[in-house]
Amino acid sequence: MAAVSEYFGMFNAESGVKPVYRLRVKTLSQGLCAGQSLDYHDSMTIHLRPELEELIRQDVQRGPYQTVDEFVERAVSMLHEQEAWFASRQTEIAGEISDGWAAAERGELASEEEVRARMQDRKRAWLSSRQTA
Q1: Is the confidence at residue 43, as pLDDT, over 60?
Q2: Is the pLDDT of residue 88 over 90?
Q3: What residues have CB less than 8 Å from 47, skipping those under 6 apart?
Q4: Most exposed among 14, 53, 72, 95, judged by the fewest C-beta atoms under 10 Å?
């Protein structure tokens, strides 16, 4: 699946016109052969605040993304992955928060030094795993 965006208008503070992107989603149909064009099956209009529009432009100009389409597609994919991860671990995360809160209420808190030492250990382990990978 690929997303294609079209830009409709510029933000104008005097008129209150906001930037509008219409995402036209291309989906692969059964039996689609190489070289055939894709049909647009669905579309949505997204209103962006000017500061978000500028962030997208900066990322595209900086080079990691060649087009606004590529940026939006990657951003939506990453957000979807993150939301799916949280949803699949919701019970586990809630349990850990509850356990931590109960420990804090019992006065079982780690000192600043203990927390820093644990974080340093985690950082060393993470860096080590990246160097071996």
Answers
A1: yes
A2: yes
A3: 18, 19, 20
A4: 14
Which residue has better confidence, 63 or 3?
63
At residue 102, what is the residue type? A
- Same domain? For 61 and 14 the reply is yes
53 and 34 housed in the same domain: yes
Number of structural domains found in the chain? 2
Full domain range(s) for residue 12 = 2-88
Dihedral pair phi/psi, residue 111, rounded to 5°: -75, 165
Gyration radius (Cα) of the chain, Å? 23
Residues 126 and 73 grouped into a single domain: no
Spatial neighbors of 5 by CB under 8 A, at least 6 apart, are: 21, 22, 23, 24, 68, 69, 72
Q: Residue 4 pLDDT more than 80?
A: no
Residue range 100-118, pLDDT digits in tens: 999 999 999 999 999 999 9
